[in-house]
Each structure stands twice: as C-alpha cells, then as structure tokens.
Amino acid sequence: MKTHSLYERIYEVIRQIPVGRVATYGQIAAIVGECGARTVGYALAALRSDTSVPWHRVVNRQGKISLRAHGSEGQEQRARLEAEGVTFDSDHRIDLSQFGWVGPKSDWRVAHGMI
DNA sequence: CTGATGACGGTGC
DNA sequence: GGCACCGCCATCA
User: Fold this and answer.
1) What band does A70 get if pLDDT is binned at 50, 70 and 90?
2) Pairwise CA distance, residues A109 & A105, whole Å
3) Would you say the C-beta of A51 is within 7 Å of strand C?
4) Nearest nt to A29, CA vs C1'?
5) How many Å apart are A23 CA and B6 C1'?
6) CATH 1.10.10.10: does it fit domain A2-111?
7) Percent of chain A having pLDDT more than 70?
8) Which of A42, A45, A81, A86 has the fewest beta carbons closer than 10 A?
9) Which residues, in sequence order, are CB contacts of A23 under 8 Å at separation 6+?
10) Is the pLDDT at A3 greater than 50, yes or no?
11) Pairwise CA distance, residues A6 & A76, whole Å
C-alpha cells in the first residue's frame, strides 16, 4: 500500500473513525506508525473543503478542537460532532474516556500494512 | 534545491 | 493544573 502518500494513509485511518467517536492527532499518528502527531495535523491542514475525510472527528489530546479555532470551521466541527451525538463540556472539551475511539481492529491494520 | 508553512504533544518548572 | 520550550516532517512555491 505505497501507492498513496503518507498523508493519504493518514486520511485512510481517519476514515475508519466511526460516527459519534473522536480520535486524537497522536492516536492517528500511532496507528499509521511513521510520523508524529504534528504531521497528522499538517496532513489535515492540507485538506480541501470538499474532502470526504471526516476531519471533524479529530481533536487534540485535551479533547478540544484545535483547528484555527475561533474561525467558522471550528464552529462547523463542533456542530458536526454534536449532530453525531458527541457532547462538549463547559470548556468546549470532549470527554475522551466516553467518546474516544478505541482504534481500528487489528485485522484492518494487517490489511493495510500498519501492524 | 532551499525555504516557508502548518489542525500537536511530551516534558519540565 | 497551566505555561513555555523544543522536537518533528511532508508538501508546495
């Protein structure tokens, strides 16, 4: 599976996040296994607005929307998550112990050479 | 090829 | 628990 760039593979992992769940940048990086959390952030920053990647399900380690916050996109991310049942506390944070993604099944990783 | 550009996270105080 | 540093790395012009 080297037909796609590293960014493409990062997006592939993000597509595995189920509705109503969120993952952190570091978690995505750990699954892909060839980059740091920051690189995942860079990959998301490169996305277009018409992408099919559910980028809104990715938040930082604190369960907060990191995005160029304050902007309209931050509002959209929160709106999309709430529409999927994810709740935010008074500090705009998501309870990762409740909505955090457990990660892809091991057989998925094997199928994608990420094991 | 060189330099600029970013959606982060761990550590130490 | 918060804040300041620093490390990290693929893309693109």
Assistant:
1) low
2) 7
3) no
4) B8
5) 20
6) yes
7) 94
8) A45
9) A14, A17, A57, A58, A59, A100, A101, A103
10) no
11) 26
Query: Residue ranges of the domains in chain A?
Result: 2-111
Q: What is the pTM of this model?
A: 0.90
Q: Is the pLDDT of residue A84 over 60?
A: yes
Statement: residue A2 has pLDDT above 60: no
How far apart are the C-alpha atoms of A73 and A71, rounded to whole Å? Answer: 5
Average pLDDT over residues A69-92: 87
Backbone angles phi, psi at A90, to 5 degrees: -60, -15
CB neighbour burial string for A84-103, b if at least 16 within 10 angstroms, e if fewer: eebebeeeeebebeebbbeb
- Asked whether residue A76's C-beta has any atom of DNA/RNA strand B within 7 A, the reply is no
Q: How far apart are the first and last CA of chain A?
A: 13
